[in-house]
Amino acid sequence: MGSVQQPKKQLILNAFAMQSPCHLNPGLHRYPNDQGANYKSLKHWVSLAQKLEAAKFHAIFFADVLGGYDVYKGPANLDPTIPAGAQFPINDPLYSIPAMAAATESIGFGVTASTTYDAPYALARRFSTVDHLSNGRVGWNIVTSYLDSAARNFGLNTQVEHDERYRIADEYLSVAYQLWEGSWRDGAVNTKENDRVAGYADPKAVRQINHEGKYFNVPGPHLCEPSLQRTPFLLQAGTSTAGKAFAAKHAEAIFLHGQKPELIRPSVDSVRQQAKDLGRDSAGIKVIAGMLVIVAETDEAAHAKFAQLAEYGDREGALALFGGWSGYDLSQYEDDQDFRFVEQPAIRSMVTHWASTVPGTEGQKWDKKTIAEYLRMGGNGAKVIGSAQTVADELERWVEVGDVDGFNLSYASVPETFDDIIQYLIPELQRRGLFHTDYAVKGGTFRENMYEVEGHRRLPASHPGAKYVWREGEKVPKYALDEAK
Ligand SMILES: Cc1cc2nc3c(=O)[nH]c(=O)nc-3n(C[C@H](O)[C@H](O)[C@H](O)COP(=O)(O)O)c2cc1C
Questions:
Q1: Interior/surface letters 188-213, b for 16+ CB within 10 angstroms, e for the rest
Q2: What positions does the domain Luciferase-like occupy (predicted)?
Q3: Domains and CATH numbers, the chain
Q4: Are 418 and 107 within 8 A, CB to CB?
Q5: Which residues is 292 bridged to in the sheet?
Q6: Exposure string (b/e) for 8-38, b if CB count within 10 Å is 16 or more?
Q7: Which ligand 1 atom minimizes the distance to the CA of 144?
């Protein structure tokens, strides 16, 4: 009896970028082919978006930070960061999205924005604006931020405590949902064809949300009329207990970084289980792993390419990134100090973890040089180097073992890393039936293309934000009636 061939899970592929000379590749702006320094140019981003859309990438995803990496050799010292172009200087990614959207039709745009430093009323307006201007192709990567330098510049002495940031974020999201879903009734805006004579929109279909909470008071109404998705597609990357609980409640896609699929699997299972416990469709949550892929014609050529690129990696910049991510200044340790054995428990546990998981480092001393060399390309994510066959095999293993749905592909050099992926890897993935040859919904919204269902523009019914929807025929949204009871 022949077994029935199950269709393979279709991978989600995003390009992982930042509007800075270097993202997870400190120093690579010095590599002759690198165009990272063109981050200020709309042409640079538009041409990248067009190239990625032609290759059918689901989205370009922009990371963002609101301060410099100034912990290493600090306090408040950017000297090691600036020459490396290590996520500094950095522009606000949101402004470039409408230009990229105007030059493309289906690719999505994920944009990072913080719930710690941005008022929900303003953020909701900005995302609605860009959702309108992109025909529903914007996603929000919700972050709570981690840099002390950001806190200082936003008028705080130090960061708001970690779990408190997530409590604020939770109320923030409820304000945003009320603005996006519950402030304008479905059908509130008249069209010329039906009833514009009656006015632009029905004033009875636009309401104040009158949110009064612990952290925010927002009367509303939402300044923007409803966009195609209303709530932008929601992405989140948190690895702590509070972060995972937040993701399980709010995220439609989660990002994870890890060396091996075996190691991220428990986090994936935990988020899916927590989402299920909240009544959400947990299988529908997209899990996307961060990864650097260096692919070439053969394994040898790919390794040679990686070695060539690595020469441009800036070790000081890499240690500066480590300082910002972890809050620890490694300059306070001797150069030959092996960090697997330091007293500081957070550093010791991080480095011991790397020592036992990073391929090719067995038996190696984990001193500053090793850490810097490890972090100079691809950050803390897995690095997969090889021919298209080797890389595709590894991606399949990640899907099977890690239960991931796709990958956020970072670059060692922009756009060269993507050019290689497009030339070598994507055809191989398509041959294996692992990657689509066209968008599920051409010209569709971010959400339609992530869920591969035409018409799936709004939050899924089981998402907690969906309870705020104000449906046609309702005098006020149901949630408001329930709250008034
Ligand atoms: C793959 C990945 C991408 C991230 N991108 C950003 C980012 O662009 N900006 C940011 O402020 N934080 C970013 N973060 C940090 C997380 O959003 C989160 O704030 C951080 O991991 C601390 O939360 P946690 O303690 O729950 O992990 C990222 C984390 C991961 C794993």
A1: bbbeeeeeeeeeebeeebbbebebee
A2: 36-402
A3: 12-299+381-484 (3.20.20.30), 315-375 (no CATH)
A4: no
A5: 383, 410
A6: eebbbbbbbbbbbbbbbbbbbbbbeebbbeb
A7: 19
Buried b (16+ CB within 10 A) or exposed e, 411-431: bbbbbbbbebbbebbbebbee
Q: Which backbone phi and psi does 470 adopt, to 5 degrees?
A: -105, 105
pLDDT at 197: 66
pLDDT at 2 over 60: no
Ligand 1 site residues (CB inside 6 A) read: 63-65, 112, 143-146, 237-240, 242-243, 255, 257, 290
Mean pLDDT of the chain: 95
**Ligand 1 centroid to residue 143 C-alpha, Å:** 6
Query: How far is residue 40's CA from residue 461's CA, in Å, rounded to a whole number?
Result: 39
Predicted pLDDT of residue 317 = 98
Q: How distant, in Å, are the alpha carbons of 195, 459, 460 from that of 105?
A: 30, 21, 23
Q: What are the CA-CA distances from residue 470 to residues 202, 206, 459 (Å)? A: 14, 10, 13
Write the pLDDT tens digit of every residue in 169-181: 999 999 999 999 9
CA distance 8 to 440: 15
Contact between 282 and 403 (Cβ < 8 Å): no
238 alpha carbon to ligand 1 midpoint, in Å? 6
465 CB burial (10 A radius; 0-12, 13-18, 19+): buried
User: Which are the contacts of 416, defined by CB distance < 8 A and separation ≥ 6?
Assistant: 33, 34
Strand boundaries in 204-318, DSSP class E: 211-212, 217-218, 233-236, 253-256, 286-296
How many Cβ atoms from other residues are within 10 Å of residue 240's Cβ?
Answer: 12
Could you say which DSSP state residue 282 is in? G
Calculate the CA 105 to chain-centre distance: 21
Residue 351's alpha-carbon distances to 1, 315, 356, in angstroms, are 51, 16, 9
**In this structure, are residues 400 and 440 in contact, taking their beta carbons and an 8 Å threshold?**
no
For the entire predicted model, the pTM comes to 0.96
pLDDT of the residue at 5: 67
Rounded average pLDDT over 66-95: 98
Buried b (16+ CB within 10 A) or exposed e, 145-176: bbbbbbbbebeeeebbeeeebbbbbbbbbbbb
Q: Which amino acid is at 426?
A: I
Percent of the chain with pLDDT over 70: 98
